Amino acid sequence: MKEFNLTEEQSKISFENTLKSNDTEEKIDIYFYRPIGYQIALFCAKLNITPNTVTIISIFFGVGAGIMFYFPDLWLNVIGMGLLIFANSLDSADGQLARITNNKSRLGRILDGFAGDFWFASIHIAICLRLQNEGWPAWIWVLGVGAGVSHIFQSAMADYYRNVHLFFIKGVAGSELDNTDDLQNEYDRDVKQTSLFLRIVAKGYINYTRLQERCSPYLQKFLKLVKKRYTAELPADLISEFRTLNKPLMKYTNIIQFNTRVIFLFLWLFLNETWVYFVFDLVVLNSILIYMVNRQEKISRMFYERLSLKA
């Protein structure tokens, strides 16, 4: 296993340099989760703990939170809230650790996405079982599964739009933007040298990326045209205008991912009305998702048509 001893240079990496971008960071993250994650990242770097290990550990805390939400006892729910907050701190730490140690990998990115899915799958299952114990009929699983599927779409598009934004303001090096063509070519090239487990993971990620692309057709046209026309460096005026128009959408990507949904989840747990969480996910967060996708498509269409006229 490769070791990542914390060098003097790495130990001097500032907190700000472990952030992806001020455009895409939420205030709760900047002032709460990221500082905690930064300290965890420095500690893990000193112990040669890898980012992927931190991600896997976060899964256990997140799933533990879901188990605590199964019980109607408020104090057990509060313990679950603490576990979920710590799981998200670890989720912040793994990315910051990767930047401190320069140990970034696509597998790490995939694991990071799976971690959140495991957390919320356990939470949805726990709430459904809890509600059934309280006398709700079996159809509550329809709400639970529907909210779970919605969460997958919401997280996928929020993550994708943030990486598109980072691509325009930081370039390829500062973004984790992938496309299915490149991923499929890599898969076909390496399939014979790759283990069955990694092939399954790679196929899953290709399908995940394909989902993101199918939900953003005009954005795909715009990106393909940009990459074809500007092979070296994006024009400064294009970067500036895209950033100006796209930055307001970043707050919606944060709302439909973790912080806002968890604040309301905690509220419903305190009120012992956990079923409302599913309705909130299906109605409120999906409405934000639809608005976000439509707005992004309008922006992308405008840029695409403008660049096409310059051909």
UniProtKB/TrEMBL annotation:
InterPro entries: CDP-OH_P_trans, CDP-OH_PTrfase_TM_dom. The keyword Membrane applies. The keyword RNA-binding does not apply. Keywords: Membrane, Transferase, Transmembrane, Transmembrane helix. GO terms for molecular function: phosphotransferase activity, for other substituted phosphate groups. The chain crosses the membrane at residues 49-68, 275-293. This is CDP-alcohol phosphatidyltransferase.
